[in-house]
Amino acid sequence: MRKIIVLSFITLDGVMQAPGGPEEDTSSGFKYGGWTAPYFYEADEAAGEFMAKRMKSADLLLGRKTFDIFASYWPTHGNIWPGVNEVTKYVMSNTITMNKTDWKNIVFLKSVDEIKSLRHSEGSDIQVHGSGNLIQTLLKHDLVDELWLVTFPITLGNDKRLFSEGTIAAAFTLTDSLVTPNGVIFANYKRSGEVRTGTIGE
After folding, report:
1. DSSP string, 60-81
2. I want to staple 138 with a disulfide (CB 3.0 to 4.6 A). Which of 115, 143, 158, 159 is the partner?
3. How far apart are CA 186 and CA 179, in angstroms?
4. CB of 191 closer than 8 Å to CB of 145
């Protein structure tokens, strides 16, 4: 079975909207696009190596909006993310059925059942980048095998969040982590069963 891995940049209050640039996603009047950039400018060598290992070639699963953003950029910037133009990009959308960009290797999906079938097929792990609405669907149906989160020491308020209504109760185990000198926390988690409860002090 292939693992579905959600890789997301988030703030302390869980905002994931437009981490890469001012014009990435200005919906609902969002005015802090590119909020990760100052931290990456200051990133040390260890942080760069940690991130590079997680950006190795893997098939991608994307929502429609993230697909539109990626497809307009990565075909001409593959040197920044080696392999991104060669891997298969699975796009969850009920509104588009053909690839009208120069991006290669696009497969369109229309249902959760198709994602389940993809997960049980042969191939590489599958990474999810951006794609907030898609992530909500994956979490609701317990289809996230690992969370690779990069948490930045800022808060941004009521904007698009990684975890929203519909997220099921689930336990995860920390598998790898790094804290940078400028306060960015890299943390990888894998799904590890049901939530356990108890009483402190017994």
Report:
1. EEEEHHHHHHHHTTGGG-TTTS
2. 143
3. 6
4. yes
Q: Per-10-residue mean pLDDT for the chain, 202 residues long?
A: 96 94 90 91 76 83 92 88 93 74 88 96 94 94 96 92 88 95 94 94 77
Where helices occur in the chain by DSSP H, the ranges are: 37-41, 45-54, 64-71, 112-119, 132-140
What backbone torsions phi and psi does residue 177 show, to the nearest 5 degrees?
Answer: -160, 160
Q: Do 43 and 164 touch, CB atoms closer than 8 A?
A: no
- Helix and strand numbers (H, E) in the chain are 5, 8
Give dist(CA 178, CA 186) in Å, integer: 5
Strands 172-179 and 106-109: unpaired
pTM of the model: 0.92
Nearest by Cα to 17 from 120, 133, 167? 133
| Residues in CB range of 148: below 8 A, 6 or more apart | 5, 6, 7, 8, 54, 186, 187, 188, 189
Across the chain, where does the E strand assignment appear?
4-11, 59-63, 89-92, 106-109, 126-129, 146-152, 172-179, 185-191
